[in-house]
Amino acid sequence: MKYRFITAILATAAAALAVAGLVTIWSVTGHGTVGNTTSVASFVVDAARTARGTTLSVHGRFVLDFSTTTHAGNRLVIHVHNYELATVPNTVRISGPAVYRYYAKGAWHETTGVGSAVLTSNRHPGEPGDPDAISVRFQSPTLPTVFEFHGAVRSGDVTVAKTESY
Q1: 100 in Cβ contact with 91 (< 8 Å)
Q2: What does the alpha-carbon distance between residue 158 and residue 45 come to, in Å, rounded to a whole number?
Q3: d(CA 100, CA 81)
Q4: Using CA atoms, how far apart are residues 147 and 117, in angstroms rounded to an integer?
């Protein structure tokens, strides 16, 4: 009887440790160029949502830069505080506080606000099918309009992944 009791306690403790020890990481990474019919930008993204037991953490950064090799361009940097899995496969929405640097009326300006990006990984480079896609939105109380950009990845890659580990 004593043996069964100890075995039951050990089994329960092992199960609790296994559940508490599970770490799930959802991530989106990538870099390259993204464009539409009117503009092209470079992008870099590295963001993750980590769940360890009941603890959830989100971190990362997204940069969209319209600079060229000869001219500085507008630039948006999002510090990722929210990471949402979309209902569409291989798609995530990241958002958080953001800084937008832009050129207007003959001078550079910088404003803070809230930015979001929806990133879809449709394929790897060189594979057939629709290219990866990125949609970006930035809103600031100091700007009269909302900045939006939608484009297809022209070079590089967006990778959306889920990893589980103990």
Answers
A1: no
A2: 8
A3: 17
A4: 12
Token duo for residue 92: 């995530």
Looking at residue 21, its pLDDT comes to 80
Give the separation between CA 29 and CA 95, rounded to whole angstroms.
Answer: 15
Q: How far apart are CA 162 and CA 26, in angstroms?
A: 4
How distant, in Å, are the alpha carbons of 3, 12, 18, 45 from that of 7?
6, 9, 16, 48
The DSSP call for residue 124 is -
- DSSP single-letter state for residue 122: -
Residue 15 confidence class, pLDDT cut points 50, 70, 90 = low
Q: What are phi and psi of 68, to 5 degrees?
A: -115, 180
Q: Is 14's pLDDT higher than 80?
A: no
What is the pLDDT at residue 73?
95
| Average pLDDT score over residue span 115-127 | 95
Encoded tokens for 115: 């930015």
Other CB atoms within 10 Å distance of the CB of residue 90: 17
Residue entry with tokens 């830069």: 65
Give 84's contacts (C-beta < 8 A, 6+ positions apart). 92, 93, 94, 95
Q: Give the ranges where the chain is alpha helix by DSSP (H).
A: 2-21
